[in-house]
């Protein structure tokens, strides 16, 4: 760790998730800080000196121009250089432990990020991914297919997934049945029924954040993500979400912090990008993310071209002439295989269990004529 850090500050850094292995990556003379929010060319960070605003240094700008994955994002640990007049420059981006990447199948390897260089990192250094799916929503019980898709995204990030069946207060007898179903699609993954309204299970969630772990909550709109984060945060944190960010010239702006430090320990990353992850399903996601490749593929001679060895394949031609990185086609193939596999799994299970499920839903709905989520 840099010698500029006074010992009494290390505890507050630890509360942000800082540890020895991050410290080992920090270049000498730089101040460690964690990115709470980014905007064009600068980051709001949390450090032992409180919230700061730091502009990207030349090296960070150069590397990000070559590969957008090298752009700082919320959750990143960075090294700051102190400039004159109390200003700070973001000089080093420390290797990421985990990363949520949009626009490619990027995996985290021991040496940091590897994989698709076209990606955009949505969140970094997430330890726990809470996959939130309501026990009961307006027209149906928990969507097991969605849980599977979100689990796939969680595993992809490198973080540890935990399934939360939210709004458990809305179901009674069928809870046990639902939890068995959830367990069947989430082998080896902890799964809990929780209610942010009654508080049931919220302590278990809190337990997963001990040791200043960083979490994201994935789930569809209305899954209860905000309510859960508020329950975890308590009232105090609503104030601390407002960062007083100074740019060193006496101008101050109040910004919404996307890295939330919870009063009871642990952190939650909540950004619009992370929220949207739960919205589209995997097939749509593949199309959206590979729009450029689809455009090229539209020029293939055969409509059902597999871009393997077909004559007149525009995709292979684009790889040949260097306009399309080969890695991008590999990622595309991989994601399509995953999507097909998941769809087939969901369909098979759905056919088998739909009948049983609807029996239970109807029974439940007759019984509970109360508030719908
Ligand atoms: N009964 C019950 N309702 C809940 C619970 N948690 C959340 N809700 C309700 O569900 C609705 C949606 O909750 P939110 O927390 O806003 O959901 P969200 O996932 O943040 O939704 P987006 O902001 O659209 O992504 C709200 O009306 C909540 O009051 C719960 O544990 N039990
Ligand atoms: Zn082709």
TrEMBL record:
Cofactor: Zn(2+)
UniProt remark on cofactor binding: Binds 1 zinc ion per subunit.
EC number(s) reported in the record: 3.6.1.-
Keyword terms, alphabetized: Cytoplasm, GTP-binding, Hydrolase, Metal-binding, Nucleotide-binding, Ribosome biogenesis, RNA-binding, rRNA-binding, Zinc
Keyword Metal-binding: yes
Pfam families xref list: RsgA_GTPase
Localization: Cytoplasm
Domain CP-type G: 116-277
The keyword Lipid metabolism is annotated on this UniProt entry: no
SUPFAM superfamilies xref list: P-loop containing nucleoside triphosphate hydrolases (SSF52540)
PROSITE patterns per UniProt: ENGC_GTPASE (PS50936), G_CP (PS51721)
Annotated positions binding GTP: 166-169, 219-227
Domain EngC GTPase intervals: 124-275
Binding site for Zn(2+): 300, 305, 307, 313
Subunit structure and binding partners: Monomer. Associates with 30S ribosomal subunit, binds 16S rRNA.
Function field: One of several proteins that assist in the late maturation steps of the functional core of the 30S ribosomal subunit. Helps release RbfA from mature subunits. May play a role in the assembly of ribosomal proteins into the subunit. Circularly permuted GTPase that catalyzes slow GTP hydrolysis, GTPase activity is stimulated by the 30S ribosomal subunit.
Family, per entry: Belongs to the TRAFAC class YlqF/YawG GTPase family. RsgA subfamily.
Protein name stated in the entry: Small ribosomal subunit biogenesis GTPase RsgA
């Amino acid at each position: 760790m840099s010698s500029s850090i006074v010992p009494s500050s290390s505890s507050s850094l630890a509360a942000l998730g800082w540890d020895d292995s991050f410290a080992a990556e920090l270049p000498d003379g730089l101040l460690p800080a964690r990115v709470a929010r980014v905007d064009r060319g600068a980051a709001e960070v949390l450090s032992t000196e409180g919230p700061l605003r730091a502009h990207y240094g030349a090296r960070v700008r150069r590397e990000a121009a070559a590969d957008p994955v090298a752009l700082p994002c919320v959750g990143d640990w960075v090294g700051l250089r102190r400039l004159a007049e109390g200003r700070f420059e973001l000089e080093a981006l420390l290797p990421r432990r985990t990363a949520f990447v949009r626009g490619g199948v990027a995996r985290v390897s021991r040496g940091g990020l590897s994989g698709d260089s076209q990606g955009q990192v949505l969140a970094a250094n997430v330890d726990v991914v809470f996959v939130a799916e309501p026990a009961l929503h307006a027209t149906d019980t928990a969507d097991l297919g969605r849980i599977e898709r979100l689990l796939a995204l969680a595993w992809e990030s490198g973080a540890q997934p935990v399934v939360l069946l939210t709004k458990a207060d809305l179901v009674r007898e069928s809870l046990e049945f639902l939890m068995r179903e959830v367990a069947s699609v989430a082998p080896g993954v902890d799964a809990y029924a929780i209610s942010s309204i009654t508080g049931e299970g919220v302590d278990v969630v809190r337990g997963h954040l001990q040791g200043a772990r960083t979490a994201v909550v994935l789930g569809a709109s209305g899954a209860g993500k905000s309510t859960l984060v508020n329950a975890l945060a308590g009232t105090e944190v609503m104030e601390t979400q407002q960062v007083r960010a100074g740019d060193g010239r006496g101008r101050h702006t109040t910004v919404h912090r996307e890295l939330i430090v919870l009063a009871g320990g642990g952190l939650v990353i909540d950004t619009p990008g992370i929220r949207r992850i739960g919205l589209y399903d995997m097939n749509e996601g593949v199309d959206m993310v590979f729009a450029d490749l689809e455009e090229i593929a539209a020029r293939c001679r055969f409509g059902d071209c597999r871009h393997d060895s077909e004559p007149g394949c525009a995709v292979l031609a684009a790889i040949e002439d260097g306009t399309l990185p080969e890695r991008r086609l590999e990622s595309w193939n991989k994601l399509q295989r995953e999507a097909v596999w998941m769809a087939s799994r969901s369909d098979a299970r759905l056919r088998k269990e739909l009948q049983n499920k609807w029996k239970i839903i109807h029974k439940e709905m007759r019984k509970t004529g109360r508030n719908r989520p």
